[in-house]
Amino acid sequence: MLWVPAGLALALVVLPVVGLLVRTDLGRLPSLIVSESSLAALRLSVETAALSTVGCVLLGVPLAVVLARSTVPGLRVLRAIVLLPLVLPPVVGGLALLYLLGRKGFLGYLLDVTLGVTVPFTTSAVVIAQIFVAMPFLVVSLEGALRNAGDSYEQVAATLGAKPWTVFRRVTVPLLLPALGSGAVLSFARSLGEFGATITFAGSLEGVTRTLPLEVYTQAESDIDSAVAVALLLVVVALVVIVVARPRALEGRA
Amino acid sequence: MKKVLATLAGVALLVTGCSSGSSGSTGGSSSAPQAKTLTVYAAASLTESFNALKTEFEAAHPGVTVKYSFGGSSTLVQQLTNGAKADVFASADQANMDKAVQGGVIQGAPTVFATNKLTIAVAPGNPKALKTFADLTGSGLKVVVCAAQVPCGSATQKVEKNTGVTIKPVSEEQDVKQVLTKVESGDADAGLVYVTDANTAGGKVAQVDFPESAQAINNYPIAVVKDAPEADLAQQFEQFVLGAQGKQELTKVGFGTPAL
Questions:
Q1: Structural domain contains residue A22
Q2: Range scoring the smallest mean pLDDT among A146-155, A178-187, B206-215
Q3: Cβ distance A210 to A44 under 8 Å?
Q4: Percent share of chain A, pLDDT over 90
Q5: Do B170 and A121 touch (CB under 8 A)?
Q6: Which residue in chain A has the smallest CA separation from B188?
Q7: A104 and chain B: CB distance < 8 Å anywhere?
Q8: Number of domains in chain A
């Protein structure tokens, strides 16, 4: 009985990709994909998504630990706020970033006046936008793992005489690695697909801020064949990331 | 809940009372006019002038509601060729109207109803003291333009080619309104937009007009969509836009009149 809705659910994901494949001009595909602008977009996308993933890990791991282990009041509100980028329309995220770090935003103004640094229209802006939308994925998967496992093992290790740093290194980190891995892969994939916040906050310029999703959008205005080809490239890259990294959480074994 | 329903009923009564009253006073037909919806796909740069025309058209055609879908012209063409139901299509350039005609979604011949040209949008007071098109290449100046794939971008390219001035933008935006937004927010020092967009931005931007913009005039064609659900009404709307009232609203925001 469950097969019918399950099949429909699967079809809803698979069929649009099939539609993309059917629509693709396979003869012209190689020439469309290796065009200078799509290669520049691919390179920029992979580089920025990698940087964003590092950023998500560096900032998200401590945040997840604090959220899972701390007992300060108001933690539930904090957790809700951390998840906000998951549900916000990306354009809203982009506007929010612009009003913080834009030249007239309160932090952006300070940066501009004191250091002469402007953030919008730079590759850094792309990375910031990606970290903004992707970090919740890392925090959520890690926080869940932190809550479910570890506590008792750590206590045992501590009673056996291990120092806090040793406990963290020898017990906590190994326990968290699978969740960290899947969180990082999810963050990478989400960064790769980021569109709304990037175009709103960072702008769109070949080689600097125009990532693959923005390239698809730009191409769609004039040459739909080339847009479809680049879109297909994006799907393939995303699939490779998910399949190769094969995060355990995605296989339901976390 | 009851209160809300009662209020709603009251409002409904008022509205129907008003509309039947006005149709009676214009003395057109004795029977109540049928409710009809006219769907117009129009370029984003037409937003302000077409919204003004909506009020006037609806006043002249009781029972008719005009519904707009504003967007980038090429996006609209794609939607139409992929089966979107509409009555009228107004494009911001000839190229996209040609695409619609080739796509077989237009009936009859399109008519140019307005022209538009570029201007430089800057912060109020022109703090960077820009005077000419060539000033846009100044070092340290953050200039935003439209991507070459959209009409305002191809107009920009045309001016660059004619003047031999190459702008190094910090961003190529997807439509002219986004260029304007980045100038309004202060993140860009200057942006190339249509005269009409700069005019409708209120006091939020100032304009620096440049004579070379005359070399890249954009034509705005309008046409009735094939298999339009309200074909007669669509025809009337097109005539309305081409007529005196249309011209008045369009020139108000800075559109030029096409040479016929």
A1: no
A2: A146-155
A3: yes
A4: 44
A5: yes
A6: A103
A7: yes
A8: 1
Q: Is the ipTM of this complex over 0.85?
A: no
Contact A98 B75 (CB under 8 A): no
Q: A203 touching B, CB under 8 A?
A: yes
List chain A residues with CB under 8 Å of B128. Answer: none
Residue A203's domain comprises 29-245
B225: helix, coil or strand?
strand
Report the pLDDT value the prediction gives residue A251, as an integer from 0 to 100. 53
Please tell me the predicted confidence (pLDDT) of residue B20: 42
Does residue A125 belong to the interface with chain B, where contact is any CB pair within 8 Å? no
Whether the CB of A102 is below 8 Å from some CB of chain B: the reply is yes
CB contact under 8 A, A104 and B72: no
Q: How far is CA A240 from CA A38, A50, A57, A231, A245, in A?
A: 18, 14, 21, 14, 8
Residue type, A160: L
Interhelix angle B151-163/B94-102, nearest 10 degrees: 130
- H helix runs in chain A, sequence order: 3-23, 29-33, 36-69, 75-87, 90-101, 106-115, 123-148, 151-159, 164-167, 173-193, 196-201, 212-222, 224-245
**Structure tokens belonging to residue B93:** 């350039």
Partner residue opposite A203 with nearest CB, options B150, B171, B186:
B171
Interval A15-31: pLDDT, tens: 998 988 888 878 888 88
| Closest chain A residue by Cα to residue B143 | A121
Chain B residues whose beta carbon lies within 8 Å of the beta carbon of residue A202:
171
With a cut of 90, say whether residue B175 has pLDDT above it.
no
Whether pLDDT at B9 is above 60? no
pLDDT band (50, 70, 90) for residue B14: very low
| Full set of structural domains in chain B with CATH | 36-115+219-252 (3.40.190.10), 118-216 (3.40.190.10)
Check the annotation: does B176 bind a ligand. Answer: yes
CB burial of residue A121 (10 Å; 0-12, 13-18, 19+): buried
- The model's pLDDT over B50-101, given as tens digits with 9 standing for 90+, comes to 999 999 999 999 999 999 999 888 889 989 998 899 999 999 999 999 999 9
> Quick one: pLDDT at residue B72?
83
Residue B128 backbone dihedrals phi, psi, to 5 degrees: -90, 5
Q: Does residue A13 sit within a domain?
A: no
- Tokens 């016929």 correspond to B260
Q: Are B82 and B100 in contact (CB under 8 A)?
A: no
The answer on whether B74 is annotated among ligand-binding residues is no
Nearest-CB residue to B174 (from A118, A221, A223): A221
Q: Name the residue among B142, B171, B178 with its Cβ closest to that of A209.
A: B171
List chain B residues with CB under 8 Å of A103.
185-187
Which CATH number belongs to the domain containing residue A85 in this structure?
A: 1.10.3720.10
**Chain A nearest-CA residue for B146:** A204
Specify if A100 maps to a domain: yes
